[in-house]
Amino acid sequence: MELTTAKDAFDRVVEKQNLSFSKCQEVIDQVSQEIEQALLKIHSVEDPMSPVDQKSILTELKHKLIAISPLKLLEGSQKELNLNLSKFPKILEKSFPDISKAYRDVDFDFHIVNQIIASHFYHQGLFDLGDCFIKESGEPEAAALRSHFLELHQILEALRIKNIEPALKWASTNREKLVQNGSNIELKLHQLQFVEILKRGNRADALNYAKTHLASFASSHLKEFQKLIVCIMWIGRLENCPHSELFTPIHWDKLTEELTRDFCNFVGQSLQSPLSVAIVAGIEGLPTLLKLANVMAAKKQEWQALKQLPVPVELGKEFQFHSIFVCPVSRDQGSEENPPMLLPCLHVLCKQSIMKLSKGSSRAFKCPYCPAEASATQCRQLYF
């Protein structure tokens, strides 16, 4: 849905409205001026009761007003405004179609939906709002998420003022599991703190910090450790240091993003709020769904009866959270009714292809990709 078109149409209506207002004001001022001049002439005649003089002044005023033609001038500007106003609702309807056409009546697990909404509030740091929602929805289980995200936001608040202590405390407490997850966030926190000490120009403090906090990382992260130690020799002229990229402020932003990702992974939550991901993905896929719903309505087909969309809904890679299996034999995409099946030879086909090859019985069939033979009972359904 293109919002620019609606905005341009709105701007045109506003422009015509302003022009119409200016024209109306101009015509009113002009008519008012002529009337005032006529009144001045009437008051200035020697005999104000003389009907002849008054009549001639009023006749002159009449001719001037006819020459001005105020109604014609007002109708012209109003006509242009009305033309743009009449087009605007159609543009709005096109830019903001009735999205209810793409709605499908499905059963929701309101318990899960409530938890997703509460999680979204806590993701955003809106703890009062999340607490209120949990209380009103009667979902006390969702309150467990509060403590996790409260700790995260407290850590992030501290990082904004370059205070790494809360983050270091969390990283050191959970060091073992973070290392298992492939995270080196503790080293990066110490690295940024070390860089701040270098910027202050105190070589003794830098050496002491390296011995106390960085030495333990030397064996596992030798290159990073060597870069930091070399920087000590450049105190006072860090801008000429061969590793000057370590001193750019962007590293604080990168650390904040990485810590947030590691924290969410640690507590078993997604980096992005599931609610926001669902809404953004829905907005991106909505034009395709609306078009499909309109086509099916024109063909008098039942939109609600579809078990699978007949057309793909193209979404960005950021919305792809698992691989999609397409059977190499039938070219059909895997589904709950037609899941991928692992053959003993480790090749994978969809269930319907296996049933066709085995002719729906336990008889052996040859794998299409190798000489191995297998039966349907030997094939194992993969997780889908």
From TrEMBL:
One of its GO terms (molecular function) is zinc ion binding. One of its GO terms (biological process) is proteasome-mediated ubiquitin-dependent protein catabolic process. A zinc finger (RING-Gid-type) spans 327-370. Residues 327-370 form the RING-Gid-type domain. It is found in: Cytoplasm. The keyword Zinc-finger applies. It comes from the Eukaryota. PROSITE patterns: CTLH, LISH, ZF_RING_GID. InterPro entries: CRA_dom, CTLH/CRA, CTLH_C, Fyv10_fam, LisH, Rmd5_dRing, ZF_RING_GID, Znf-RING_euk. One of its GO terms (cellular component) is cytoplasm. Gene3D superfamilies: Zinc/RING finger domain, C3HC4 (zinc finger). Keywords: Cytoplasm, Metal-binding, Zinc, Zinc-finger. Residues 148-205 form the CTLH domain. It holds the Pfam family CTLH. Its main location: cytoplasm. This is Protein RMD5 homolog A-like. It comes from Populus euphratica (Euphrates poplar). The gene is LOC105109776.
